């Protein structure tokens, strides 16, 4: 697992191992689980997994919290079969002292909240003589492989595919842990939030793989042709599971490449979604500290938006009016209605939705702020690098190039219409 693992200090360990699961909520095909398992087996010590949803996922909206927690007891069952300890809702320092931990593993993440946690964890481990490892179990190509900031999606794609053959490999099959005492994990329960009725999908690895099979059987053969046409809804719908780490993009890529030629146009478009754009987003957020504001855009984009900041808008909407679908733009309203009703929005509609906020707000800064606020409140895919990049790409041209100049939007890529009358009709009445 070269480059996938980074030891944050030089402390040696011989006792029990703790994996703090914060980002990749699965046992299957999880490099962090494999690392902890192999380390503890090597030292003939015990292996614990800590899951603390209340502490480590504060930015998630209610839908995302429910979706994530729906899969946690499935993790528990898999760990029972592998004789791995799972601990819920304890602080990591309490776990360390109670279970004689001298090695901690957690996942790499480019987001600032995670980096703050990593800093706190690093200081704790140094003070308490605990080995600390960060493992990139979320990406196929470890994010450190692209060690220089690249601002072109095309060039990032070329670099990712350069490393693709090195890191796209099968996962080892784990057996029952030999050195853990007999595991008796307590089922996970939560009472701080209620299930929400307006989610039409259910979290967990098994449910995610059912959605994978449904997509392959019903939609894959026309994915390239129809994925941008909202009337056909020919999208994978897999991002909620992938972004929350309930299924892994590496295992999905292996699965699809066994079934179809890699040069098949549908395969290529599917890999663009689950691999290229997802890991381009990781690269962007890792290298750009202003990943969610206008300072994170390229100079050309900032200049063109500034040059058109005084252009007349089609209308000026408050956040309240946007949220209540009270705009003149029926296509935008339809996208917002789908988002509010289901927690999802067709990707092409989402890009249009972001771009046209520029035409309904006073400034690009306000358009960005409202896109993050509204999408963050309702979407199952919000608050992850993937959706952050799509918002920044749509509104301020991140990872894109300049196009012909237009009113308000300047040289930012423009979408005039989603051209989807059936979609608009379906979502024109507030549900």
TrEMBL record:
GO terms for molecular function: deoxyribodipyrimidine photo-lyase activity. Keywords: Lyase. One of its GO terms (biological process) is photoreactive repair. Residues 15-143 form the Photolyase/cryptochrome alpha/beta domain. SUPFAM superfamilies: Cryptochrome/photolyase FAD-binding domain (SSF48173), Cryptochrome/photolyase, N-terminal domain (SSF52425). The keyword Lyase applies. The keyword DNA-binding does not apply. Transmembrane segments: none annotated. InterPro entries: Crypto/Photolyase_FAD-like_sf, Crypto/Photolyase_N_sf, DNA_photolyase_N, Photolyase_Class-2, Rossmann-like_a/b/a_fold. This is Deoxyribodipyrimidine photolyase. It comes from Edhazardia aedis (strain USNM 41457).
């Amino acid at each position: 697992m070269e480059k996938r693992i980074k030891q944050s200090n030089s402390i040696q360990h011989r006792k029990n191992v703790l994996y703090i699961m914060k980002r990749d909520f699965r046992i299957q095909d999880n490099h962090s689980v494999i690392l902890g398992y192999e380390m503890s087996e090597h030292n003939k010590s015990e292996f614990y997994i800590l899951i603390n949803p209340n502490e480590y996922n504060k930015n998630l909206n209610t839908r995302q919290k429910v979706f994530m927690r729906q899969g946690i007891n499935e993790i528990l069952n898999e760990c029972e079969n592998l004789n791995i300890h799972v601990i819920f809702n304890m602080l990591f320092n309490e776990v360390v002292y109670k279970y004689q931990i001298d090695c901690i593993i957690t996942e790499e993440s480019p987001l600032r909240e995670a980096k703050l946690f990593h800093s706190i964890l690093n200081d704790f481990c140094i003070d308490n003589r605990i080995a600390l490892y960060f493992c990139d179990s979320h990406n196929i190509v470890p994010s450190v492989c692209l060690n220089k900031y690249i601002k072109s999606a095309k060039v990032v794609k070329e670099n990712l595919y350069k490393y693709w053959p090195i890191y796209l490999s099968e996962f080892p099959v784990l057996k029952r842990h030999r050195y853990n005492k007999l595991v008796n994990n307590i089922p996970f329960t939560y009472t701080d939030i209620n299930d929400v009725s307006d989610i039409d999908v259910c979290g967990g690895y098994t449910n995610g793989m059912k959605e994978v099979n449904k997509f392959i059987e019903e939609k894959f053969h026309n994915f390239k042709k129809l994925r941008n046409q909202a009337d056909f809804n020919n999208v994978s719908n897999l991002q909620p599971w992938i972004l929350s780490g309930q299924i892994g993009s590496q295992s999905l890529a292996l699965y699809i490449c066994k079934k179809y030629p890699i040069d098949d146009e549908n395969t290529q478009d599917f890999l663009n979604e689950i691999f290229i754009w997802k890991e381009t987003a990781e690269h962007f957020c890792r290298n750009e500290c202003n990943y969610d504001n206008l300072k994170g855009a390229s100079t050309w984009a900032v200049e063109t938006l500034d040059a058109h900041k005084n252009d007349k808008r089609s209308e000026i909407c408050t956040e309240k009016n946007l949220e209540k679908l009270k705009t003149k733009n029926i296509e935008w309203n339809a996208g917002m209605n789908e988002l509010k009703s289901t927690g999802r929005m067709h990707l092409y509609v989402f890009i249009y939705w972001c771009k046209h906020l520029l035409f309904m707000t006073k400034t690009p800064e306000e358009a960005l702020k409202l896109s993050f606020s509204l999408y963050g409140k309702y979407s199952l895919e919000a608050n992850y690098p993937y959706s952050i990049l799509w918002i920044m790409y749509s509104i301020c041209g991140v990872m894109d190039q300049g196009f012909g100049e237009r009113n308000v939007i300047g040289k930012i890529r423009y979408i005039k219409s989603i051209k989807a009358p059936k979609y608009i009709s379906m979502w024109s009445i507030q549900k």
